[in-house]
Amino acid sequence: WGLMRTNPRPTQASIGFYYPDDYPPYLGTQVNARNGSGGLKHWIKSLLDTKAQAIPELSPGRMLEVGCASGNYLHKMAGQGWQVKGIEFSPQAAASARANGYEVHTGSLESVDLGASELDLITGWMVLEHLHEPLKGLEKLHAWAKPGAYLALSVPNAASLEFKLFQSRWFALQLPNHLYHFTPETLTKLLKQAGWEVESVHHQRVLSSLFSSLGYLLQERGWHRLERWVVGRPSDKVRLYQLLYPFAWLAAIFGQTGRMTVWAKKPD
User: Fold this and answer.
1) For 216-232, what is the mean pLDDT?
2) Are strands 62-66 and 83-88 parallel, antiparallel or unpaired?
3) How far apart are CA 34 and CA 185, in angstroms?
4) Count of CB atoms within 10 A of residue 148's CB?
5) Global pTM value
6) HSE, side-chain direction, 13 A CA sphere, residue 242
7) Which contacts (CB < 8 Å, 24+ apart) does range 187-190 have?
8) β 180-181/145-156 pair status
9) In this predicted model, what pLDDT tens digit does every residue of 66-118 receive, in sequence order?
10) Which PANTHER family match (predicted)?
11) Is 141 exposed, middle or buried (CB count within 10 Å of its CB: 0-12, 13-18, 19+)?
């Protein structure tokens, strides 16, 4: 029914070779005790906080993060009163999260068994596209959730203008790590098949994949100086994202940004 897959793809036995210890998502989620800075910088950061934008206000309960990396989001939610636990594929990243006092199970969603968990909230930020069997993964999460629990999943949007423009050069394809490439329609169908009710699809107001994709294109054309300017240093990129936020906001209204978050519920 239109779900795009990577083919050929790594096996479950070999996929770990594509996730070295310095895989960027592991390094970018270290617990940061200074998350609460105020003023203009904090306001700008809140505009770009895709996780906060997607999750409504909920009373704290039991939460699971799938793909928690080194535990930064667990730390944030624990600070808001949630009882948190995580699942992490990388032993090193999982150990880092456990060193900060969090319950983290090492392994893939397919391999971990939490038993009767009765969870109130499950999150997975850019995780589902990495699974060999996403439907079974969603069914497993459904079994762990108590009736009325919520699920927040963020994935690249393969129906976006970014993908249409860049095709094989789209940064969010992330081959061969990303095994599936979802659109709002295919992800909604998959969630319904697993027993979840989709309440909303939130198109993230971010353009990070667009600039990285443009960098790929310029590099391929041999325009290395321009490519370095477009991709730039991390601090330059943050300033550029901030300047272009109005465009990202407009693109999100029309569902054309490269990332989306689906908010779903287990029926009562």
Assistant:
1) 76
2) parallel
3) 38
4) 10
5) 0.87
6) 13
7) 187/128, 187/153, 187/155, 187/260, 187/262, 188/262, 189/1, 189/3, 190/3, 190/134, 190/135, 190/138
8) unpaired
9) 999 999 999 999 999 999 999 999 999 999 999 999 999 999 999 999 987 79
10) PUTATIVE (AFU_ORTHOLOGUE AFUA_2G14390)-RELATED (PTHR43861:SF3), TRANS-ACONITATE 2-METHYLTRANSFERASE-RELATED (PTHR43861)
11) buried
